[in-house]
Write a sequence for this structure.
């Protein structure tokens, strides 16, 4: 059946190749949660990030719409869930909802979409059903889906250890996610266990701002060495003294340049 092919499947492969390089690795910069926080990165930081040459940028709708030139040489991964703010009491329950769909993502030129998933949470059915619905919609147009897999909740209602991180990522992939963004276990060496159980590219998030740029670079190098397909760093990239130079250094760390 090698002579058969699929236009939809080809579309997904082409889009994924915009942010995953030929070595199978990717350095992603996250500029996508300010729609909830209302603060964080400078308004024009995406231009500084783009100048450094990341493989892809996780972006809010406004960043994608306002700065289209920033994505001419890298992938656009659109944050499609949220519709909440952190201005009031930020509870432990899942209050996320979908803001955009696959067709809107395609309209703005996205190469993939990203949304949260909370396997193990008391209300896990909310995020897992959202993920399944997005997978179904994106399969119809060849749009890759990245699940941001958080075991339990952000409140760590279940341990963020290798076992739970691994199971959470596996669940997201089994539902249909094409890639996973998640944290590394406290012992980075245990990330290999997570990767072995995840039949999809796995990108490690950066977490809180680290004390030094050297620590950021060391962490990026260690997670890739442990088997991760790459990283998806936010404040540890755009929060650097020189975001452009930090992007260049992290790109080299991920791709072994």
């Amino acid at each position: 059946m090698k002579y058969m092919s699929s236009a939809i499947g080809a579309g997904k492969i082409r889009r994924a190749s915009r942010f995953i390089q030929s070595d199978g690795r990717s350095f992603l910069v996250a500029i996508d949660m300010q729609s909830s926080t209302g603060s964080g990165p400078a308004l024009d930081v995406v231009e500084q990030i783009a100048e450094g040459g990341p493989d892809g940028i996780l972006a809010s709708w406004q960043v994608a719409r306002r700065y289209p030139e920033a994505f001419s040489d890298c992938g656009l991964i659109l944050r499609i869930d949220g519709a909440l703010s952190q201005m009031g009491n930020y509870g432990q329950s899942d209050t996320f909802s979908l803001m955009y769909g696959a067709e809107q993502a395609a309209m703005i030129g996205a190469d993939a979409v990203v949304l949260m998933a909370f396997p193990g949470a008391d209300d896990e059915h909310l995020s897992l059903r959202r993920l399944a619905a997005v997978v179904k919609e994106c399969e119809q147009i060849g749009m890759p889906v990245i699940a941001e897999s958080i075991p339990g909740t952000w409140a760590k209602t279940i341990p963020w250890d290798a076992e739970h991180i691994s199971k959470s990522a596996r669940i997201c992939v089994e539902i249909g996610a094409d890639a996973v963004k998640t944290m590394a276990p406290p012992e980075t060496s245990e990330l290999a266990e997570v990767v072995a159980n995840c039949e999809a590219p796995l990108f490690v998030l950066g977490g809180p701002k680290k004390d030094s740029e050297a620590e950021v670079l060391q962490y990026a190098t260690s997670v890739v060495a442990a088997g991760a397909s790459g990283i998806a760093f936010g404040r540890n990239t755009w929060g650097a003294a020189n975001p452009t130079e930090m992007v260049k250094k992290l790109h080299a760390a991920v791709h072994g340049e």
Summary: Residues 7-255 form a domain with the TIM Barrel fold (CATH 3.20.20.70).
